[in-house]
Specification:
single chain, alpha/beta, Rossmann fold, N-(1-d-carboxylethyl)-l-norvaline Dehydrogenase, domain 2, 2 domains, six-stranded parallel sheet, 13 helices, elongated
């Protein structure tokens, strides 16, 4: 396939490389020229704008920071829509508000561009391994067009429903993972403050109903104090803000998500925004009177 890729950061770069390595013809664009260079070195072509990418591909993928960035890429002055490519399938794999995804999709459809919202879970490790979970909203026809590309980037690929449904699934994912990371950090900090080896406590918990991938993987990273960013705290704070905005729009009570969102707000306020989300353990330690 002729595929375009916009956004070549921590997640986007390895995802794009997996497409290239699978034999797809790739055209890329990023705001910073240096972000494009690894892909150009690997055999991709470069473009000078999102419209320039859209003009030469059949499928276009974006992975950017938030809804305003998606809107700029898709609908801005040099955006995808300005390429006048009726029949193009545009896929945004960022994490944005479901309502924003629906609005962007509707505006693109007016230009003849079929839009999928397809956020991912799995972090940088999953992006590199091509094992992401991909949650897709949009038309069945567009999903089938994009499926070969999704299969290069992920293992668990689910067409959840209409436009915006992928973002709803991702918001639900962030509730579970955000609260899960906070809960594991809280449990390990509790063990340590009680004078018990948290590594032994984790080992015991892994054998019962408390088992989770978060306890297994992130729990070990917490014990190793490996806070190297795979998914930065400011990103999880942004995602939890999406959850709470959506809950406000729906008039819903999400008490666990609300508490988790407040903790990630505190992460940024404590200067931990650039560290991995599992550094929430540091925040709990500080609140308990311990030093980093």
């Amino acid at each position: 396939m002729k595929i375009g890729f916009i956004g070549l950061g921590i997640m986007g770069r390895p995802m794009a490389l997996n497409l290239l390595q699978a034999g797809h013809e790739l055209t890329v664009w990023a705001r910073r020229a240096e972000s494009m260079q690894p892909l150009l070195d690997a055999g991709a072509s470069g473009a000078d704008s999102p419209a320039g990418v859209a003009g030469v591909v059949d499928l276009l993928i974006s992975v950017v920071a938030d809804a305003p960035d998606v809107e700029q890429v898709m609908l801005g002055e040099q955006g995808v829509a300005s390429a006048d490519r009726a029949g193009l399938v545009a896929v945004d794999m960022s994490t944005i508000r479901p309502a924003a995804a629906r609005e962007i999709g509707a505006r693109l459809l007016e230009q003849g561009v079929d839009f999928l919202d397809a956020p991912v879970s799995g972090g940088e490790v999953g992006a590199i391994a091509g094992s992401l979970s991909i949650m897709v909203g949009g038309s069945v026809a567009a999903f089938e067009t994009a499926r070969p590309a999704f299969e290069c980037m992920g293992k668990n690929i689910v067409h959840v429903g209409d436009a915006g449904a992928g973002q709803v699934a991702k918001a639900a994912n962030q509730i579970v993972t955000g609260a899960g990371v906070l809960t594991v950090a809280e449990a390990l900090n509790f063990a340590a403050r009680s004078g018990v080896d948290p590594a032994k406590v984790r080992e015991a918990l892994l054998g019962g109903f408390a088992y989770s991938k978060i306890l297994e993987n992130h729990g070990q990273r917490m014990l190793d104090r490996n806070f190297k960013p795979g998914f930065k705290s400011w990103m999880h704070q942004k995602d939890m803000n999406i959850v709470m905005q959506s809950a406000h729009e729906l008039g819903m009570c999400l008490p666990v998500a609300a508490a988790t969102a407040q903790m990630y707000n505190a992460m940024l306020g404590s200067g931990l925004g650039e560290e991995d989300s599992i550094a929430i353990l540091k925040l709990l330690e500080r609140l308990s009177g311990a030093e980093d």
